[in-house]
């Protein structure tokens, strides 16, 4: 199967830059929703990262007849029953600043130490094809909720996410370093390998 172009279902330019960097060697044109002229807002009403990514990718593939990739991601904190999870973007309200959201996580983990602060970023990517087929990939970046916010890089919960292995916060990583380790980077490389196999048959 020859895939000529792919739509990546996001309006986030930062994600597109990351996706283009990683997908470069696939030799396929990767378009954002805007570039593809798609202006729909798909309601993510699933109960898992997988469901949400699949809903988004299949809906837009159905509308456009193109191969569509969509991602769903979030932060799981073990001591909080894996909250905020699929609700990461809307935790404490969409319009609440991440400084407040991050501080809330620090407060809710008061008295917990080391492994009791374990957390992970999760990313699931779904690929939907015009013939109705769907594939998914999932990857995580493991770490802990820190005791404070650190770093000016990244976005969202990055400043509160501590990586014990690297003894730094995710917010302190330059983009290229984060892409090597991140849930999204890893999930993208996994789905790329699957797409490569399809290109070969
Ligand atoms: P979505 O997948 O674009 O819906 O994003 C889900 C939410 O998870 C984001 O709004 C952030 O709150 C959080 N999140 C996902 N990935 C990251 C990351 O790499 N760093 C910080 N926060 C993230």
Describe this structure in words.
The chain is an alpha+beta fold and 201 residues long. It has one domain (5-200): Maf protein. The protein is 31% helix and 24% strand. The protein has helices at residues 13-23, 49-64, 98-108, 175-181, 183-200, and strands spanning 5-8, 29-32, 67-77, 83-84, 118-128, 134-145, 161-163, 168-169. Helix 1 packs across helix 5 (183-200) and helix 4 crosses helix 5 (183-200). Bound molecules: inosinic acid. Residues 71-75, 88-89, 121, 154-158, 182 line the site of inosinic acid.
Q: What would the keywords be for this entry?
A:
alpha+beta, binds inosinic acid
Q: What is this entry, summarized?
A:
The chain has 201 residues and is α+β, with helices and mostly antiparallel strands.
What is the count of DSSP helices, taking H or I runs of 4+ residues?
5
For the record, give the distance between the C-alpha atoms at the N and C termini, rounded to a whole number.
6 Å
Tell me the strand percentage band: 15-25%
Weakly predicted, low-confidence segments: none
Number of domains: 1
Number of E-type strands: 8
General form = globular
CATH topology: Maf protein
Radius of gyration: 17 Å
What structural category characterises the helix and strand content? alpha+beta
Q: Would you identify the CATH architecture?
A: Alpha-Beta Complex
Give a quick account of the main beta sheet: strands, pairing sense, barrel closure: 8 strands, mixed
Give me the strand/helix succession: EHEHEEHEEEEHH
Helix content: 25-40%
The CATH class = Alpha Beta
Give the distinct bound molecules. inosinic acid
């Amino acid at each position: 199967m020859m895939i000529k172009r792919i739509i990546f279902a996001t309006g986030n330019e930062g994600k597109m830059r990351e996706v283009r960097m990683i997908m470069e060697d696939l030799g396929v044109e990767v378009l954002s929703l805007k570039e593809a002229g798609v202006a729909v807002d798909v309601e993510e009403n699933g109960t898992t990262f997988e469901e949400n990514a699949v809903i988004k990718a299949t809906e837009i593939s159905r509308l456009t007849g193109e191969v569509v990739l969509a991602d769903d991601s979030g932060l799981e904190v073990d001591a909080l029953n894996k909250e905020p999870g699929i609700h990461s973007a809307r935790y404490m309200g969409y319009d609440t600043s991440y400084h407040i959201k991050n501080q809330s996580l620090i407060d809710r983990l008061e008295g917990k130490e080391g492994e009791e602060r374990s957390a992970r970023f999760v990313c699931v990517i779904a690929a939907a094809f015009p013939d109705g087929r769907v594939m998914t990939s999932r990857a995580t970046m493991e770490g802990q909720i820190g005791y404070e916010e650190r770093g000016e890089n990244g976005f969202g919960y990055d400043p509160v996410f501590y990586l014990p292995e690297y003894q730094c916060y995710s917010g302190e990583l330059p983009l290229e370093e984060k892409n090597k380790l991140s849930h999204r980077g890893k999930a993208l490389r996994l789905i790329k390998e699957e797409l490569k196999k399809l290109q070969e048959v």
